[in-house]
Amino acid sequence: MLKKxxxxxxxxxxxxxxxxxxxxDTPFWQKSFMLVDxxxxxxxxxxxxxxxxxxxxxxxxxxxxxxSKPKAEPAPTAEPLPPSEPAPPVAPPAPRQITAVSMDDELxxxxxxxxxxxxxxxxxxxxxxxxxxxxxxxxxxxxxxIADSVMRNPGALIxxxxxxxxxxxxxxxxxxxxxxxxxxxxxxxxxxxxxREAGLAGLLHDIGKMMVSADILNKPGKLTDAEFVSVKExxxxxxxxxxxxxxxxxxxLDVCLHHHEKIDGSGYPNRLKGEEISLYSxxxxxxxxxxxITSDRPYxxxxxxAESLRKMAEWSSGHFDEKVFQAFVKSIGxxxxxxxxxLESGRLGVVVEQQVGKSLLLPKVRIFFSxxxxxxxxxxxxxxxxxxxxxxxxxxxxxxxxxxxDINRYWLGDAAVNR
Length: 419
Fold this sequence. Notes:
Blueprint (H helix, E strand, L loop, with lengths): L1 E5 L8 E5 L13 E2 L3 H8 L5 E5 L7 H4 L36 H27 L6 H17 L1 H8 L7 H19 L4 H13 L9 H4 L7 H8 L1 H10 L6 H9 L20 H16 L10 H15 L2 H11 L7 E4 L3 E7 L10 E7 L4 E9 L9 E4 L12 H4 L7
Antiparallel strand pairs: 1-4, 2-3, 2-4, 5-6, 5-9, 6-7, 7-8
Protein name: HD-GYP domain-containing protein
InterPro entries: DUF3391, HD/PDEase_dom, HD_GYP_dom, HDIG_dom
Pfam family, one: DUF3391
């Protein structure tokens, strides 16, 4: 829906249909565009432009309306103060402070959140399957816990959510995409409200798979044409399910319906292309594919996280928004948590943690195997960014090539007991 708004109501994530000005006053050559960069917003606000048309079907609505809910009758209020006594100012709520912690400090807490969220998503999706409205309040509480964990240490929950069984794939996939959307939103500079909207959209994006036969979803072999058509109907099915709940936001609806669209227009269900796809759906496309290809499925073994990013980079020109994909890589690292790597010293190790504010090529790695002796060595956590550290990553490796099994225990630590 097109809507005319004041310039001070513009925010990142909106789709600008047209700026209300002559072409000479606008800092952009495009008439219509998705507002994805805070610097672009500043450029617009620095001009003489006072109003703009936005398309709420392709991007965010104004805050006052996007977050509105049906209002109950107003409760009785106290008598107003006399005119001579101005009402005391109401202090805005203090911003929530979340302190970053190490992987070891967050893993136990993240493991509990993952297990709790998996059960909650299972219950929520099955309620939807039976025709009941989605409990958005419970979903938002889940997103809050997941987002807080990602803010403390993104690698912990994102890494744990990648470890799935075939029986819980759909539910754990939703938890994983929620966490990935949160990490990506922060990398793109979205504010807290927008970040949690992205997380909620990730949590609900695949709810339509409840309408697809479990035999098809868990089929180990190639799908028939009819089965593939059934699977491709899940975005529309999910959209219809979510529409039954008035409290589901336009963003969650959009991502549910359009997370399989591709930049080149070859996706489904509407074959949208380029900027016809909202920012949030472009984010959802990246997060959905990454988690899908890194997870074990009935018909294939999941790819290594680093290899998955390499494959996605090959597809990115037609499949993904380049800017969003690059931000995604920055959010999880070139060698994401759980990647098996070979160091130049001839030792193998698993990436344990990314280094905030440091090179994506210099994570923390727990080494455990020597290629010189072809044997296991005492596990040791090394920080490749530490001053004076001469070792560095030479390549990512395939565990099967070296006959290694259960390498996840080297980054999971004590949390491995609960998996």
